[in-house]
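We were asked to recover a plausible sequence for a given structure. The inputs and outputs are reproduced exactly as logged, with field labels preserved.

PROBLEM: sequence recovery
POSITIONS: 238
GIVEN STRUCTURE:
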């Protein structure tokens, strides 16, 4: 699914869809060493204003995004932007809307919303990505272009320039900047991508196993807790 053009019901000082890189002082660059398995760490100042995204289903696609935003704001929420999702192939509008709310404590209350604009709806969390995020600036994995403080590297030829400035012809083989293979850097068959994906899946399975063990451990503790000993007075002999 793809998103249509975002609208902004209210003017805000922060633009979520902006491609401007974050301040390098607020971001610790990733993969500056050979260890691609290190995790990206971003200071709180860079993430505290992250938008709260929800998915609204069953609204008719003829509904204007501006109407959706205003209706939600009338309920006390602050809307940053709204988008009507498009079908991936036909590009037709679907009965699905993405809504980004400004950070607020009350945002989770919106999941109890059952109707909007006289229509029964479902409010859900967006599906989590199953693949690893890839930066469109440096082509490394684990972070996005917005938080990248590294130099630009081309996705097609691997040289140090933005992908949009590449002059490589279609006849010239691509060159992956990650593994030096003859393919673009965003190729899912890339050796580097597969290694990172396998490492991520292994870590996820380990975490899930730890959670299961913790639950079992707590459960076993409850089951094995000694019961209070009942003391009874001996019956005297007649």
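RECOVERED SEQUENCE:
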């Amino acid at each position: 699914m793809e998103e249509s053009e975002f609208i902004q019901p209210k003017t805000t000082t922060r633009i979520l869809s902006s491609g401007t890189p974050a301040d390098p002082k607020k971001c610790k660059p990733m993969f500056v060493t050979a260890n691609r398995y290190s995790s990206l760490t971003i200071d709180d100042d860079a993430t505290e204003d992250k938008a709260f995204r929800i998915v609204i289903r069953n609204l008719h696609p003829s509904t204007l995004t501006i109407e959706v935003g205003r209706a939600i704001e009338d309920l006390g929420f602050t809307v940053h932007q709204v988008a009507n999702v498009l079908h991936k192939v036909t590009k037709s509008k679907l009965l699905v809307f993405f809504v980004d709310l400004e950070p607020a404590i009350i945002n989770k209350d919106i999941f109890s919303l059952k109707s909007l604009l006289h229509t029964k709806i479902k409010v859900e969390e967006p599906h989590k990505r199953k693949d690893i995020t890839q930066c469109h600036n440096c082509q490394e994995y684990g972070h996005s272009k917005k938080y990248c403080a590294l130099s630009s590297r081309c996705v097609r030829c691997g040289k140090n320039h933005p992908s949009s400035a590449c002059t490589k012809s279609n006849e010239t083989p691509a060159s992956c900047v990650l593994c030096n293979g003859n393919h673009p850097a965003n190729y899912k068959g890339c050796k580097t991508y597969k290694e990172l994906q396998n490492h991520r899946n292994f870590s996820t399975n380990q975490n899930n196993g730890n959670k299961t063990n913790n639950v079992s451990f707590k459960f076993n503790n409850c089951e094995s807790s000694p019961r209070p000993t009942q003391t009874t007075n001996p019956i005297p002999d007649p």
